[in-house]
Design brief:
With 242 residues, this protein is of the alpha/beta class. Helices cover 39% and strands 24% of the residues. It folds into 2 domains: 3-101 and 212-240, Rossmann fold, CATH 3.40.50; 103-208, Dihydrodipicolinate Reductase, domain 2 (2-Layer Sandwich).
């Protein structure tokens, strides 16, 4: 039985994680939220799961490092400086960082990478995502994860090839671009489609989250896997071996 601490326990994912931990027969070490000290939670837990906010990441990593506890970072909206900090922490503890903990999305990212590697730049790639009206970041972490998979398949840097927020006279679409479109409304848990548009044919790879529990169960699955890993930085693809 693993003792799991939740950072961001009062959020939607925090509540889902509490239910998933109970359903799986593991123990809740406790939960904290904005403004709380993560140190005591890290001391009580075998594993930390962080679904809080980017500005809390450094303190959460420091707490995990101080107690030599692995941490799963599912917080979205991370910037380059956050990723550098994760890289530093991963020298001493096991860290799994992901924009989406769904096992289905993990497999989708693998398929996107494979398709992008086999289709030429004359196949335009567009990523469309929709989430509930309360989501504050765009594109979603999952959309960026899928964009990175497409870029990896093509052997290019996503930041140099992405197109976002088209408006007005944008001109023709750049060859090799990876486009993003973000929709917000209702209570949608998460819909993602990656469209490969060629000449006279279109391939669409999609995933629909019907319930937030899929992310909680996936996070728990990945976190338990992380407990057995040596220090290093991991992703959901490592969990599935893809």
């Amino acid at each position: 039985m693993a003792k799991i601490g939740i950072i961001g326990s009062n959020g939607r994912m925090g509540a889902a994680l509490v239910a998933a931990i109970a359903d799986a027969g593991h123990a809740l070490a406790g939960g904290i939220d904005r403004g709380d000290d993560p140190g005591p939670l890290a001391r009580a837990a075998d594993l930390l799961v962080d679904f809080s906010a980017p500005d809390a990441l450094e303190a959460n990593l420091d707490a995990a490092l101080a107690e030599n506890v692995p941490i799963l970072v599912g917080t979205t909206g991370l910037e380059e400086r956050h990723h550098y900090r994760i890289d530093d922490a991963a020298r001493d503890i096991a860290v799994l960082q992901t924009g989406n903990t769904s096992l289905g999305v993990t497999l989708l990212a693998h398929l996107v990478r494979e398709a992008a590697a086999r289709l030429g730049p004359d196949w335009d790639i567009e990523i469309a995502e929709m989430h509930h009206r309360m989501k504050v970041d765009a594109p979603s972490g999952t959309a960026l994860l899928l964009g990175q998979a497409a870029a990896a398949g093509r052997g290019v840097d996503l930041s140099a090839h992405s197109e976002r927020g088209r408006n007005g006279q944008t001109g023709a679409r750049a060859e090799g671009a990876i486009g993003f479109a973000s929709l917000r409304g209702g209570t949608v848990a998460g819909d993602h489609s990656v469209i490969f548009a060629g000449t006279d044919e279109v391939i669409t790879l999609s995933h629909r989250a019907e319930n937030r529990m899929i992310f909680a169960r996936g996070a728990l699955h990945a976190g338990l896997w992380l407990l057995a890993q040596p220090p290093g930085r991991y992703g959901m693809g490592d969990v599935l071996g893809v």
